[in-house]
Design a protein that fits this description.
The chain is mostly beta strands. Helices cover 11% and strands 48% of the residues. The strands form five sheets. The protein has a 16-stranded antiparallel barrel.
């Protein structure tokens, strides 16, 4: 088979019969190969006659075609490039989105893409089953209940102000958090509104992240929330954190929206995390701190139909049963037999936590100096409490903000989230002077020794399944042993030990 170059340089196949009829001159004109001044082999006459040779400077028709095609390709490329530029110019004129929506385990978040402003919406829901053992009176309280239902919203405005609103809709409806946090710098922030104070390291943990279902006994010696303002900030990249505030001075264990007297409390905290800057290098998370508060409070006597405001706390167990209360008889219309807060109230609170990979430890001690008055008698009582919690997570990493599963719940992949086990010991002791001294004539009692215990000691064990951070299923058992709080004046005795089993399903989104 012979190959023939035709017209524009394309190659066509020809049969041997047609190839034999093609003249050598035509082949010379159309062939793209070989210089034009060389005659095809076998045409001697053309090679010998100079007049028949093509001028050396004259391009072949095939070269002209290739050049024209290159020009056409270049022109097409220029047109395509210009069209692309026009499309890009038009696209730049279209308004780009400035905000977005994110849904993850931290909630439902709407924010500007530059991060300057945001709004996050979520809720904490805890459904409990609470059952008591070895006490017929307490077994009457066995129940299923909604322990907490707390919708919240928080976010940022203008990269300058953080805000938070948290409400409680289970049981007594109330506002827990309602504050604005102005932060021109990380080392200087101003929080204004209703928020958690610095007393109680476990108190500062989120309810959704506790290793055990209820807080320890020493949290009876700290306020749930307080109203005021607080300067705080991080120093050295979070190696040190400080807080200094002035607040209304809520009675311990409460969260009121207003003050019951004109005096205010001063409170402060310093907390050090020496390995914070090296946490990414595998160092443990160690935190050591100290918090304190000082106040001057005075309860209010009853007036007309207005009941007395004692300004004093009520202490409760993990089963939410009262085990200590100052004298506050309902039929006391003059306040003569009621115990009121009187002047000094101060807290001293050393704090410690240690977290490393799957292991966690949190411990603290609280000393409460409580001024009280009953009738014309006044004194200052010293109450002590402490606790230590140890936790360990299988397939999880433990931190102050709870357990993070190393692998998510995915049965098909053979992963089931994390399992956390935790144990706690807690102890609370009331000042003996609270109950007077029967051997001292005229000794005043500020609480009833037959109804309020002198001390309490609690042991707690818990097991929690955490398939994801936003969902927990847990089971806790707590035993609380009391001294005093029962019997008669002639034969005082100890209150019955409380044994309670609490199960919980928790959703936090």
């Amino acid at each position: 088979m012979a190959m023939v170059f035709v017209g524009n340089g394309m190659v066509r196949a020809a049969t041997p019969t047609f190839a034999a009829d093609v003249s050598t001159t035509a082949i010379a004109q159309e062939a793209p190969l070989g210089p034009p001044d060389v005659a095809p082999e076998g045409d001697a006459s053309s090679a010998e006659d100079p007049s028949t040779a093509a001028p050396a400077s004259t391009p072949s028709p095939t070269a002209n075609g290739i050049s024209k095609r290159l020009d056409d390709i270049d022109q097409i490329a220029r047109i395509a490039l210009r069209k692309t530029e026009i499309l890009e110019e038009e696209a730049s004129k279209v308004a780009k989105p400035t905000s977005g929506v994110v849904v993850d385990d931290k909630g439902f978040t709407m924010k500007l893409l530059d991060g300057s402003s945001s709004l996050r919406i979520g809720a904490l829901l805890q459904g409990d089953g609470r059952f008591f053992f070895r006490d017929d009176a307490l077994q009457a309280n066995d129940s299923f209940l909604i322990r907490k239902f707390r919708p919240y919203m928080d976010g940022t405005l203008f990269s300058l102000v953080d805000y938070r609103l948290l409400s409680e809709l289970a049981g007594t409806v109330q506002i827990l958090d309602a504050y604005a946090d102005i932060h021109p710098w990380t080392w200087l922030r101003l929080r204004i509104g209703k928020f958690k104070g610095p007393i109680g390291l476990e108190r500062l943990q989120s309810d959704a992240d506790l290793p055990l279902l209820e807080r320890s006994l020493d949290q009876n010696l700290s306020a749930v929330r307080d109203v005021g303002l607080q300067l705080w900030g991080d120093l050295g990249g979070g190696v040190a954190q400080y807080a200094l505030g002035i607040v209304d001075g809520s009675p311990d264990g409460t969260s009121p929206d207003t003050d019951f007297n004109h005096a205010k409390d001063l409170e402060g905290r310093i907390f050090l995390q020496p390995f914070r800057a090296k946490s990414s290098l595998g160092f443990p998370n160690l935190g050591i701190g100290f918090a304190a508060s000082f106040g001057n409070r005075k309860g209010r006597l009853p007036s007309g139909t207005t009941a007395a405001t004692t300004g004093l706390p009520v202490f409760k167990t993990a089963g939410q049963n009262t085990f200590f209360q100052y004298f506050a008889p309902a039929n006391d219309t003059t306040g003569a037999t009621t115990t009121f807060s009187h002047e000094i109230e101060s807290h001293f609170n050393p704090q410690l936590y240690y977290y490393y990979e799957e292991f966690g430890l949190l411990a603290e001690y609280v000393l409460l100096r409580q001024g009280v008055q009953r009738g014309n008698s006044t004194t200052t009582l010293n109450h002590h409490s402490t606790h230590a919690t140890v936790s360990y997570a299988f397939n999880g990493r433990v931190g102050f903000d709870g357990v993070t599963p190393l692998t998510a719940f995915a049965p098909k992949a053979g992963t089931w989230g994390a399992i956390e086990i935790a144990v706690r010991w807690a102890w609370l002791k009331l000042d003996p002077a609270t109950f007077g001294d029967a051997k001292v004539t005229g000794s005043v009692q500020y609480a009833d020794p037959l109804r309020s215990t002198r001390s309490a000691q609690a042991w707690t064990a818990g097991l929690t399944w955490i398939p994801a951070r936003r969902f927990h299923v847990a089971l806790n058992f707590e035993q609380t042993i009391f001294k005093g709080g029962a019997g008669t004046m002639a034969a005082p005795s100890d209150r019955k030990t409380e044994n309670v089993l609490v199960g919980r399903a928790q959703v936090n989104f």
